[in-house]
User: Which sequence fits this backbone?
């Protein structure tokens, strides 16, 4: 099950309408626009709730996404790179979000730093095609994963705080 | 188109970046902020006060400012709870700030009863109070307390402080909580003075106060002042406080004037009229008003010497003229009977007057009058006593009394006292109290006497009106009611000295006199009864003696004749006949005498003939049945023996009957000398009878009897039909010629008696008359015959 706060966050993210993948040319543009609008709203939501936790940008076509995400614990900010591609079958297939830095540091991760999403994610996503977009994937997938896995890894000493300049 | 779209995508991407970067400005969440501020306060780095809803923080300085503003807005007085509400700050902070404010004198604030009050408010309050004071003339701090909802002490302090500054008035010297203005006092004084001057009769203070609208306390102080300055006339009476009465001097003056006048005119004073005048303690008032008068205090009025003297004089007058007097007309009509009774008693006591008595409460009767009345009753007493005796009531009642007195001793007395008189008493007791003649009457009197007993107990000490239920015996005096109150009253009505006498007095007099008269009557009755009894006893003794004499004679003659009868041993037939005859004649006579005596003694109902001989056998048995069983038991055999043929039986039964237990008659022992005298007397009587006799048959009978006596020296009692057998018996001892003469005469008598022929009867009658002289001659001469020896011998 998705926890209460996640659900709440999720409901505040605008739903998408256009069902189009990167191959769909014009429709993809349409879709991309909706994705951006959705992301902007989500980020604004986060900011207003003082819950900003990632930076994202994409390539020109909007098929490749990268940026940073962070987790604050004990007054320390642990920051990780984040990247994922829009699959060809998108939006039917969900994007596979990866944290390459943490590859091999936790069991809840596939080869290449792709995070293992919960059992709930996939059916939920499948039910909501095409309404869910990137913002939903972040909120529903990466957010909860970070919240569970990072403190565990910090505790294990797998992840260490490195001072940024 | 797609170019445009892409442009748009680029723009959106830029926007997205911008959004991510720009709006990542710092934002402190509310929770954090609260924690931060809390931390700061805790660290004493920041001094703020949070509002009660927790939304805002206020600095203490600002709060003080706000409080002062609020105080000003609410005209210098505000409740701290109200402040807490309106400033949205916790009450504790408000209180703390207020305390701070009070501590700094410049603010001019104070806290009273959880209210913050500014000096300006106090000033306005003083002005307000002054206004009310001037308006009402008086004010009480306690009233202010309720009006302004401030503690009394505070207001008291305030008023005292402002007195003569902003509050113009004066403090009550007796009650510091009361303030008033001079004008008010003056107004009250004027009102009270007016009221008190106007009052004509005693008035309760409460009603005066209600009319004048003046407080009780002020009234009394003003009253004292007015009284001291002699502006009013009158006093306060009764209890202190509101229940006191103001009695105007004019009223008390009028009162005492009235009392004085009334007393001077009438010589007495009635308590109830004094009470009507409003004098509660009438006796005390009289005592105070007439300290020098000798006043007699009666239950309902007081009497002066004037009236008392009058009473005394009339009593004396009555005593000297020995006539009764009713004092009620002399006394004022208001006096009750108790009053009259007391005044009369006092008058009598004072003069040591013992020669008069008080009856009916107010009537005086001199004892001389009473004694004269008693004397006047003397004839009535005698008459009544006689009546009581005659009716037997007196004796009955007395006997009953005696029975009751000796109820316990009675049986013992009966046993040990066998004497004659006690026997008689006992018999009488039996007759009156028991089943005798007046059985029902006796019982009735008994029940009556029981009633009387209870009555006497309950009324033992009140000896007036005793005339309710007259009973034969009055227990307490032991007197028999011979005379009743009614009788006395009847007598009194005719008395001249009791003219116009009211019935009550007659009643009382009668009741008063009754005991002594009753005693007299009882004495008289007893006297009469005693004389009657004495005579009765005498006569009964006499009759008893006579009876004894007669019975003795009869018995001795029976004995005498018995001997004669025994001569006929050879002729048993004749002997039997003679015996029967004797029993029938002499025996019956004895029995008759006994019966007559016993009958009289026991007062049986059947009329007993005065002549003993006229008692028939039937009458005898009837009387016997009425006699007491003991007597009947002994007399019954005698009655039976009379019918039998045995002289011995008869004699034995008679003796038993006459024994002390029964008829109690002493019979003399047979005496030779007496016997001879009896013989002689018998002969003489027979001779006497013969001399006077002219009837040939009777003459023959007498002659034969005489001859028998002469022949046998024994008398004989026989009837005419035994003449022949006697002649036959006498034949051997008679000279033949005599016998023949007698025989011849006998035959003639027989033929005379049996013939029916007139001529023949006449002839025989003349013959017999001729022969009568010879017969008498024979009887006289034949004194002793040779046979007598034989007879004596045979007797021996």
Assistant:
């Amino acid at each position: 099950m998705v926890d209460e706060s996640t659900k709440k966050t999720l409901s505040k993210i605008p739903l998408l309408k256009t069902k189009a993948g990167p191959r769909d040319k014009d429709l993809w543009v349409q879709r991309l626009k909706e994705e951006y609008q959705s992301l902007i709203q989500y980020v604004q939501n986060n900011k207003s709730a003082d819950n900003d936790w990632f930076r994202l940008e994409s390539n020109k076509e909007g098929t490749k996404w990268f940026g940073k995400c962070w987790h604050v614990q004990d007054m320390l900010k642990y920051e990780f790179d984040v990247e994922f591609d829009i699959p060809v079958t998108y939006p039917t297939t969900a994007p596979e979000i990866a944290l390459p830095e943490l590859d091999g540091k936790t069991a809840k991760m596939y080869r290449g730093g792709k995070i293992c999403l919960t059992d709930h994610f996939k059916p939920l996503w499948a039910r909501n095609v095409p309404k869910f977009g990137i913002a939903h994937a972040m909120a529903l997938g990466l957010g909860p994963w970070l919240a569970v896995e990072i403190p565990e890894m910090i505790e294990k000493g797998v992840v260490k705080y490195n001072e940024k300049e | 188109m797609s170019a445009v779209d892409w442009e748009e995508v680029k723009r959106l991407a830029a926007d997205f970046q911008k959004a991510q970067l720009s709006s990542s400005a710092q934002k402190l969440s509310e929770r954090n902020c609260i924690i931060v501020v809390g931390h700061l306060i805790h660290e004493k780095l920041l001094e703020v006060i949070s509002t009660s809803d927790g939304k805002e923080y206020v600095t203490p300085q600002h709060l003080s400012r706000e409080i002062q503003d609020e105080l000003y807005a609410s005209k210098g007085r505000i409740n701290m709870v109200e402040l807490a509400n309106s400033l949205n700050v916790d009450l504790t902070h408000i209180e703390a700030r207020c305390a701070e404010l009070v501590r700094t004198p410049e603010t001019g604030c104070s806290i009273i009863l959880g209210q913050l009050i500014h000096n300006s408010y106090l000033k306005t309050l003083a002005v307000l109070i002054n206004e009310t004071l001037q308006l009402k003339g008086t004010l009480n701090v306690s009233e202010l307390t309720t009006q302004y909802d401030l503690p009394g002490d505070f207001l008291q302090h305030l008023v005292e402080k402002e007195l003569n500054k902003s509050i113009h008035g004066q403090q009550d010297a007796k009650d510091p909580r009361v303030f008033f203005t001079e004008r008010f006092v003056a107004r009250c004084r004027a009102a009270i003075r007016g009221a008190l001057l106007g009052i004509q009769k005693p008035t309760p203070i409460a009603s005066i106060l209600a009319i004048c609208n003046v407080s009780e306390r002020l009234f009394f102080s003003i009253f004292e002042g007015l009284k001291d300055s002699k502006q009013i006339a009158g006093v306060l009476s009764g209890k202190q406080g509101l229940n006191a009465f103001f009695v105007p001097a004019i009223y008390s003056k009028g009162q005492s004037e009235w009392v004085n006048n009334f007393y001077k005119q009438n010589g007495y004073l009635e308590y109830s009229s004094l009470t009507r005048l409003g004098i509660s303690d009438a006796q005390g008032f009289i005592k105070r008003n007439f300290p020098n008068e000798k006043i007699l205090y009666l239950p309902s009025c007081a009497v002066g010497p004037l009236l008392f003297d009058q009473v005394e004089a009339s009593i004396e007058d009555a005593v000297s003229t020995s006539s009764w007097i009713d004092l009620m007309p002399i006394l004022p009509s208001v006096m009750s009977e108790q009053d009259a009774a007391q005044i009369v008693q006092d008058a009598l006591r004072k003069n040591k007057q013992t020669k008069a008595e008080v009856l009916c409460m107010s009537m005086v009767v001199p004892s001389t009058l009473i004694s004269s009345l008693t004397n006047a009753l003397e004839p009535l007493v005698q008459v009544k006593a006689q009546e009581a005796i005659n009716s037997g009531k007196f004796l009955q009642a007395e006997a009953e009394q005696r029975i009751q007195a000796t109820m316990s001793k009675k049986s013992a007395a009966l046993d040990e006292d066998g004497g004659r008189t006690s026997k008689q008493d006992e018999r009488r007791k039996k007759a009156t109290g028991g089943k005798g003649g007046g059985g029902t009457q006796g019982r009735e009197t008994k029940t009556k006497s029981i009633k009387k007993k209870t009555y006497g107990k309950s009324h033992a000490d009140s000896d007036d009106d005793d005339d309710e239920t007259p009973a034969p015996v009055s227990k307490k005096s032991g007197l028999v009611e011979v005379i009743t109150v009614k009788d006395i009253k009847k007598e009194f009505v005719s008395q001249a000295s009791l003219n116009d006498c009211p019935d009550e007095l007659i009643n009382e007099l009668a009741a008063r006199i009754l005991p002594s008269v009753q005693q007299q009557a009882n004495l008289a009755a007893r006297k009469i009864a005693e004389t009657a009894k004495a005579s009765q006893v005498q006569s009964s003794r006499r009759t008893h003696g006579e009876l004894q004499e007669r019975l003795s004679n009869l018995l001795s003659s029976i004995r005498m004749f018995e001997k004669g009868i025994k001569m006929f041993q050879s002729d048993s037939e004749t002997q039997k006949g003679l015996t029967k005859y004797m029993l029938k004649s002499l025996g019956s006579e004895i029995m008759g005498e006994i019966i007559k005596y016993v009958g009289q003694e026991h007062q049986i109902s059947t009329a007993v003939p005065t002549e003993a001989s006229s008692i028939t056998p039937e009458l005898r048995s009837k009387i016997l049945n009425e006699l007491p069983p003991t007597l009947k038991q002994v007399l019954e055999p005698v009655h039976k023996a009379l019918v039998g043929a045995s002289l011995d039986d008869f004699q034995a039964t008679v003796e038993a009957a006459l024994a002390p237990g029964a008829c109690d008659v002493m019979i003399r022992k047979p005496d030779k000398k007496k016997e001879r005298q009896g013989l002689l007397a018998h002969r003489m009587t027979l001779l006497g009878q013969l001399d006077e006799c002219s009837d040939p048959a009777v003459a023959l009978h007498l002659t034969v009897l005489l001859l028998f006596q002469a022949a046998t020296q024994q008398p004989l009692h026989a009837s005419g039909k035994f003449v022949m057998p006697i002649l036959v018996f006498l034949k051997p001892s008679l000279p033949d010629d005599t016998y023949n003469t007698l025989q011849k005469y006998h035959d003639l008598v027989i033929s005379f008696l049996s013939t029916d022929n007139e001529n023949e009867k006449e002839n025989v009658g003349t013959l017999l008359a001729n022969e009568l002289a010879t017969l008498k001659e024979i009887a006289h001469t034949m004194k002793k015959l040779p046979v007598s020896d034989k007879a004596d011998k045979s007797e021996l």
Summary: Strands of chain A lie at 54-58, 64-73, 76-85. Chain A has a mean pLDDT of 83.
